[in-house]
Amino acid sequence: MPGKYFMFLIWIILLSGFKNQYSRIRYTGEYSKEVAIIPGKDSVFLNPVFLNISDDDLYRYESILKTPVCDDTLCQIVQIKVYWDLIGDYTRFDTLAGYPLTKNDHLLFTSEDYSKLQATLKDDNSIIGRKSESELLDNNRNRYSQKLDAVTGATDLQIKNAVVDGALYSTYTLWHLVNGDIKNVLANWTIKNYNSKMEQQLIFSDNTNSIIFALKRFDEQDYVGRFQEILRVMKKGYPLVNFYIAKNLPAEIFLSEENIQSLNQIWQLLDPNTKSILAVYLSLD
């Protein structure tokens, strides 16, 4: 009897371990909410996207992407963990234990390859976003793969510098997954579930797109009543942000001598375009 009880305990412990491992894959924090699904290159692969709170208490979207990257069985399935910010901009990826990224002939990515992939995925204006898959290869030029024992088309010269060498399809597929329709899906989810914590994270971020995303939800009374917050943002010196603020400051702001003095104090931090907008108001008697 004790032996059976002992084996039962071992079974429970093992089962809990498997369950916890699965939970860690899907839920990385105390707060987690599924908000979207990203189909892989093959729609059999459905990858849930979650809104989570990171260890530094910031919202972020994340997903473990599992997807084939080419239309045959020669390419390995890619599995990585991907992160986006609140406005749907891709931020970074992590590899998963036991699933390193590979390229032609199943060679492992080098540290330089990982850096190149990160830079490409961060570039939402990359040329590979304007290319169809059929345009990736120049069929007039060939390369030979020893392990695949096949001759394949070489990468088109226009996009060669935009992708990881030897990982054309991995780079292309991942770019379209993290920079495609999911961007708008996540941004819209943020808008529909907007709260003060999200607003504070966005407006005081170092991403100009995030700051403007938050400012677009300000009305005139927000600018007036929260002018000290606006000044904190302007002190960062981001030209696009400050120009946007200058165009949207209500006239009521300039009725206060204290506000005018505050703007004069940060004048040297402002770009010429922002100054040209504010100068009209600051010159009023």
- Determine the fraction of residues in helical runs and give it as a percent range: 40-55%
* Protein structure class: alpha+beta
Number of domains: 3
Topology pattern, helix = H, strand = E: HEEEEEHEEHHHHHHHHHH
Please give the radius of gyration in angstroms: 25 Å
Q: Flag low-confidence runs.
A: 4-30, 140-153
Major β-sheet profile = 5 strands, antiparallel
- How much of the sequence lies in strands comes to 15-25%
**DSSP strand tally:** 7
**What is the terminal separation in angstroms?**
94 Å
Shape: elongated
Largest beta sheet: strand ordering: 1-2-3-4-5
Describe this structure in words.
This protein has 285 residues and is of the alpha+beta class. It has three domains: 28 residues; 153 residues, no CATH class; 65 residues, no CATH class. 44% of the residues lie in helices and 19% in strands. It has twelve helices and seven strands. The strands form two sheets. The chain has a five-stranded antiparallel beta sheet, with helices on one face. Strands 6-7 form a two-stranded antiparallel sheet. Helix 7 runs parallel beside helix 10. It is elongated, with a radius of gyration of 25 Å. The N and C termini lie far apart (94 Å).
Topology diagram in text:
Blueprint: H1 2-26, E1 32-39, E2 46-53, E3 59-67, E4 78-84, E5 90-95, H2 111-122, E6 137-145, E7 150-155, H3 157-160, H4 168-179, H5 182-192, H6 196-203, H7 208-215, H8 220-225, H9 227-234, H10 239-248, H11 257-265, H12 272-282
Antiparallel strand pairs: 1-2, 2-3, 3-4, 4-5, 6-7
